[in-house]
Amino acid sequence: xxxxxxxxxxxxxxxxxxxxxxxxxxxxxxxxxxxxxxxxxxxxxxxxxxxxxxxxxxxxxxxxxxxxxxxxxxxxxxxxxxxxxxxxxxxxxxxxxxxxxxxxxxxxxxxxxxxxxxxxxxxxxxxxxxxxxxxxxxxxxxxxxxxxxxxxxxxxxxxxxxxxxxxxxxxxxxxxxxxxxxxxxxxxxxxxxxxxxxxxxxxxxxxxxxxxxxxxxxxxxxxxxxxxxxxxxxxxxxxxxxxxxxxxxxxxxxxxxxxxxxxxxxxxxxxxxxxxxxxxxxxxxxxxxxxxxxxxxxxxxxxxxxxxxxxxxxxxxxxxxxxxxxxxxxxxxxxxxxxxxxxxxxxxxxxxxxxxxxxxxxxxxxxxxxxxxxxxxxxxxxxxxxxxxxxxxxxxxxxxxxxxxxxxxxxxxxxxxxxxxxxxxxxxxxxxxxxxxxxxxxxxxxxxxxxxxxxxxxxxxxxxxxxxxxxxxxxxxxxxxxxxxxxxxxxxxxxxxxxxxxxxxxxxxxxxxxxxxxxxxxxxxxxxxxxxxxxxxxxxxxxxxxxxxxxxxxxxxxxxxxxxxxxxxxxxxxxxxxxxxxxxxxxxxxxxxxxxxx
Length: 598
Hints:
about 15% strand, 23 helices, six-stranded parallel β-sheet
């Protein structure tokens, strides 16, 4: 099946390669000084100055591809191969083999070279060449291996953004590009290599590698050129491209709209923050950031005139984005620091979060409190998988189950915040933190839910109004075409978890009532029963073709309690409709939530 899209490389081999708006990424592999500048690791390895010059000449074709990708609104990922200073992540085979195999190699990984230690993170030679310098809203991925998926966050980085199609360029074709291309194919991504900006140190092997990518009618993927992507970019203005994006509500403080207005300088942060403070109802705040403090931060952000190689403002994604939290977030909370480090403007803590959102006076509210009984129809809520985001510095209502919920006016905005937080450093992961590489890796469906469809189960009991909403969402001509599948086991486990969580013997209740006289044995039994419910719930989503992608349930305190007790993820999309899925597959329900709001 071919995904239809107005943006398609018609000349790619062996067939046209689509570039779905919002779902395509450019992966630039290892365009580091160490590989493409003289005196780096690549020059040490290369047998010929002439061949090395050909590799170095790839910089400008890669820049053409990068400019086109930026214009087309693609996600951009820059990879850097390298190792920690003590080389503990570098296997001896990689460290020693070439040095011992050929006397010509007088330097090895970690040795001191003209640009610092070869392939060591933090060295001058390890970084991306100046011409391809990443923007601050682009992803820089450090990898210890040849493949970009090995021991990295790349899969989650891509799926958290809804990416299904990948373009590749960089060095070297026969090594890191080929390894990553094959890995991406195994993960379910549609892949296309741009041959005129991908190269290596053996022309014969490079040519064979390019042919291999698209051989056997596209066994691994497709091959094209940067010129084809540049032509598509040149044929579509920014206004025309905007029409290709899936339709979503455009509110003044929605993330993408706000970021674009800052980049174009149509708005200043000072004007936005002044407008918010001029109309604020201070009574909804428990602690309001002083106006002069917020405006001082705004002025500092406005003074940031950093530009990319083409003179376009280079801003972090959350530059000037207003956000707030509920009172359990202390000023030193890690997540607040993460967002402000990316340019976010913290307004303070609120006792009435919805009033701020519905008045369009903030982009986000962070909370750990269950607000299911009073959630307005215009507000989306994303309950993150327990442990996926740092809760350091937050006074959790229940340390064993509470997790961060992102409140926003669209699931798209909530997903953007989560996706960006995943790539930011977490200096103090708590004991319950679970890295997503410890969670299941879900294969990507390149067609997307809007074409491939979604398998959904419906929780019961439910009323006629809820049933009608579900039908509207999942009808063939609805927002999210899907197929209904059995979900009794998932429903039962969710209900069981909610009941166990409300039991006086549960850890959650004991955390709220530490002087309780409940026996330790009763609590142990409750813990074991809850672990059993977690196993049943997880298994329900891993039972093959008739297992659900999402469980759809009516919004209630019981449902939210079950989500928290299980430590899974949930998204409230339409008034009282909740999408729930297994632990760690947040990207799946976020994709479903985004599409259901279009």
